[in-house]
Inverse folding.
């Protein structure tokens, strides 16, 4: 049988694999296809990569991007294969890499090395381009109703804004603060996406309670789509009162204990019980005193049903009904009182 020889080394009388002897076949066999050069488009700001026309991943370390690029561009020719990846050297945006393959061919373990280059082409992703251009969809106007904001409130609000945006950033690529401006009455926060702004509002309401209003503003028209471009202004007003303030609501007098997104929890000073009022009733609530209005005075007489104290301003004696919780007071004790609408309440 003529022609039974290896076309590479000429050895004859041997089993051939694709025209080669076993030795030459193993030498020639490529268990992997590795391109000489791999290019990846990477956003220099957020490290997102352009894969199949889509920007994916964020904040991924550069080495990880290189390894992923290698994995995505290697074609395996056999099933039974172990691949080892190594970055040998980095020069700027070009990384020289080694791909080592261990495979079993014809029952024999072979190791082959492939060398390739991964080039990172830096290009800002559409989200970072928007961020850089100052793009925003919503503005949160932080204010306080009928008073000015306190520095502490602004600080607390900004912590919440940053925390919420950071938490959303993985999912919502426009969850960023584009700009912040301070006004005499408060502060404005320009947020990349309306969705993220809504999340921020939810977080703020949970912390402070407060009143929210929205108004879209027409900014112009998109030349390419012909659609109107709107931005949403969200007014977020902290209530005129704070925890510890005294309020009047439907003829009741209360001391505010807590506030959240649902309503206001107050202690009714006449009924001596806790009560809640919802935010939709806000306009009917009046702030009538603050902790600064609390005064100290002295107990001058006490009986099983009555208590007498001195008016903290006129020092005239005031006779009040002894209420639960006052049983342990003694003559000469100092008590805190608040005077509202000619009524005096002992706070304890
Ligand atoms: Zn041969
Ligand atoms: Zn980006």
């Amino acid at each position: 049988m003529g022609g039974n020889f290896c076309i590479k080394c000429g050895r004859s009388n041997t089993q051939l694999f694709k025209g080669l002897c076993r030795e030459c076949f193993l030498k020639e066999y490529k268990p992997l296809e590795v391109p000489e050069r791999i290019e990846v488009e990477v956003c220099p700001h957020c490290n997102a990569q352009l894969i199949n026309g889509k920007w994916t991943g964020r904040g991924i370390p550069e080495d990880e991007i290189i390894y992923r690029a290698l994995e995505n561009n290697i074609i395996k020719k056999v099933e039974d294969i172990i691949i080892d990846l190594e970055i040998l050297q980095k020069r700027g945006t070009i990384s020289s890499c080694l791909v080592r393959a261990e495979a079993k061919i014809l029952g024999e373990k072979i190791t082959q090395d492939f060398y390739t280059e991964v080039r990172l082409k830096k290009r800002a992703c559409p989200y970072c381009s928007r961020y850089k251009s100052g793009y925003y969809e919503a503005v949160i106007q932080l204010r306080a109703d009928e008073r000015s904001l306190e520095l502490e409130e602004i600080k607390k609000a900004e912590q919440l804004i940053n925390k919420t945006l950071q938490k959303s950033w993985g999912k919502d690529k426009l969850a960023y603060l584009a700009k912040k401006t301070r006004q005499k009455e408060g502060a404005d926060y320009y947020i990349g996406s309306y969705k993220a702004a809504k999340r921020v509002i939810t977080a703020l309401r949970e912390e402070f309670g407060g009143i929210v209003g929205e108004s879209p503003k027409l900014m112009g028209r998109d030349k390419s789509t012909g659609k109107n471009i709107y931005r949403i202004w969200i007014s977020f007003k902290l209530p005129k009162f704070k925890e510890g303030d005294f309020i009047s609501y439907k003829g009741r007098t209360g001391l505010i204990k807590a506030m959240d997104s649902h309503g206001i929890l107050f202690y009714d000073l006449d009924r001596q019980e806790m009560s809640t009022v919802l935010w939709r009733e806000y306009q009917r609530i009046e702030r009538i005193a603050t902790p600064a209005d609390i005064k100290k005075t002295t107990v001058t007489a006490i009986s099983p049903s009555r208590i007498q104290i001195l008016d903290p301003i006129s020092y005239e004696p005031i006779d009040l009904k002894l209420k639960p919780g006052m049983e342990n007071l003694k003559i000469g004790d100092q008590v805190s009182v608040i005077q509202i609408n000619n009524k005096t309440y002992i706070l304890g």
Remarks:
- The longest strand covers residues 108-122.
